[in-house]
Design goal:
Protein name: DNA nucleotidylexotransferase
Bound molecules: 8-OXO-2'-deoxyguanosine-5'-triphosphate, manganese (II) ion
Strand content: 5-15%
Radius of gyration: 22 Å
Number of strands: 10
Structural class: alpha+beta
Strand order of the largest sheet: 2-4-7-6-5
CATH topology of the largest domain: Beta Polymerase, domain 2
Subcellular location: Nucleus
Shape: globular
Number of domains: 4
GO molecular function, one term: DNA nucleotidylexotransferase activity
Family: Belongs to the DNA polymerase type-X family.
Order of helices and strands: HHHHHHHHHEHEHEEHEEEHHEEEH
Helix content: 40-55%
Organism: Xyrichtys novacula
CATH superfamily of the largest domain: Beta Polymerase, domain 2
Length: 371
């Protein structure tokens, strides 16, 4: 008899929105390897293979058991020839030659390094790489390179913002934003979204939704918050985008990936004294503050449920919600609305549960959306 019982034979859905994925990952060796290949394809603008590996990662993350042989993975969805070949190598030898080769590739290493800077996307990273640049010091001393404001801040605060934000730090930031919005509007609503709402212990930033019940007032909220943070001397950087959202102009054929709500991407100065248990700094670093990335989005209250669902993530969970809506329900979902193409109407929702119900999906709690 085998020492470990065989995994249960329940069928796994090809859609992340029909799976429950907590932060516990039983297949980290495999998913880390697949993520290297997905990132590499993404940096080379090969969307098909990138998405295939992202889907495979997401399926493996949802499993309550560890894949130990190809046979047990046989009935899983979203595992193609390529991912199975990589999986076979890892299960047999403990590592994959293709992944090792990618990790030691100069272009991959350089593009990963450059895109780790706030404000530097794959296009800019590739441009710098093609100019022969390989390190931060080469980029910073090249006189032909003009950094934009975001990239300048990205380099200035690189050490801090490339370091993970802890839950305690996220809580401290919540109090700071909470105090600011309620001074501005007593009936304001503030909600934590992103990875921390999904129960993650660490994040690369902290995401919040802020709004007010008074229609139109949400549009002035972010500038007022930013003003207050400036006066407190803790706003180190801000990129503010005004709202371009108009309900009457929502397209009924194709929804967009980016939303039109007012939003801002910030870098804040967080004092150690505000964080229970202290700042999450490197060993030996005893500074009294650190820089942290914060995202704020401000939808009209009437669009709150859609914005909350869209900004909670994970990205793969969102992609599959939209794909499921389109492919299985002839509906279009984005951060603003849900449109039924059969009934030719927008479906109302005040909570995330309403949206899952419209889609005929079992409700998935935020901490089960770590796809
Ligand atoms: P992390 O920060 O802990 O690393 O993970 P995360 O919280 O899941 O990632 P995120 O990059 O902060 O994104 C959170 C969600 O916000 C994600 O589902 C995608 C969503 N999102 C939008 N629009 C935009 C946008 O314009 N920019 C960014 N950065 N995220 C957006 O819906
Ligand atoms: Mn986040
Ligand atoms: Mn974010």
């Amino acid at each position: 008899a085998s020492a470990t019982p065989p995994p249960p034979k329940a069928t796994v859905s090809q859609y992340a929105c029909q799976r429950r994925t907590t932060t516990e990952n039983n297949n980290k060796t495999l998913t880390d390897a697949f993520e290297v290949l997905a990132d590499s394809y993404e940096l080379n603008e090969m969307e098909g293979p990138c998405l295939a590996f992202r889907r495979a990662v997401s399926v493996l993350k949802s499993l309550p058991w560890a894949v130990k042989s190809l046979e047990t993975a046989q009935d899983l969805p979203c595992l193609g020839e390529h991912s199975k070949a990589v999986m076979k190598e890892i299960l047999q030898y403990g590592h994959s030659f293709e992944v090792e080769k990618t990790l030691s590739d100069e272009r991959y290493q350089t593009l990963k390094l450059f895109t780790s800077v706030f404000g530097v996307g794959p296009k800019t990273a590739d441009k710098w790489y093609r100019r022969g640049l390989r390190s931060f010091s080469e980029v910073l001393t090249d006189s032909s390179i003009q950094l934009n404001r975001m990239q300048q801040s990205g380099f200035l605060h690189y050490g801090d913002i490339s370091r993970a934000v802890s839950k305690a730090e996220a809580r401290a930031l919540r109090s700071i934003i909470d105090e600011a919005v309620h001074v501005i509007t007593p009936d304001a609503v503030l909600a934590l979204t992103g990875g921390f709402r999904r129960g993650k212990e660490f994040g690369h930033d902290v995401d919040f939704i802020v709004t007010t019940p008074e229609p139109g007032e949400e549009e002035t909220l972010l500038p007022k918050i930013m003003n207050r943070l400036t006066k407190q001397g803790i706003l180190l950087f801000s990129d503010y985008q005004t709202s371009t959202f108009e309900m009457s102009k929502l397209p009924c054929h194709r929804f967009e990936a980016m939303d039109h709500f007012a939003k801002c991407f910030l870098i804040l100065r967080l004092e150690a004294s505000k964080v229970e248990g202290g700042l999450h700094l490197a060993e030996g670093d005893s500074r009294g503050w650190r820089a942290v990335r914060v995202d704020l989005v401000s939808p009209p209250m009437e669009r709150y449920a859609f914005a909350l669902l869209g900004w909670t993530g994970s990205r793969q969970f969102e992609r599959d919600l939209r794909r499921f809506a389109r492919m299985e329900r002839r509906m279009l979902l984005d951060n603003h609305a849900l449109y039924d193409k059969t009934k030719k109407e927008f479906l109302a929702a005040t909570t995330e549960k309403d949206i899952f119900a419209h889609l005929g999906l079992e409700y998935i709690e935020p901490w089960q959306r770590n796809a």
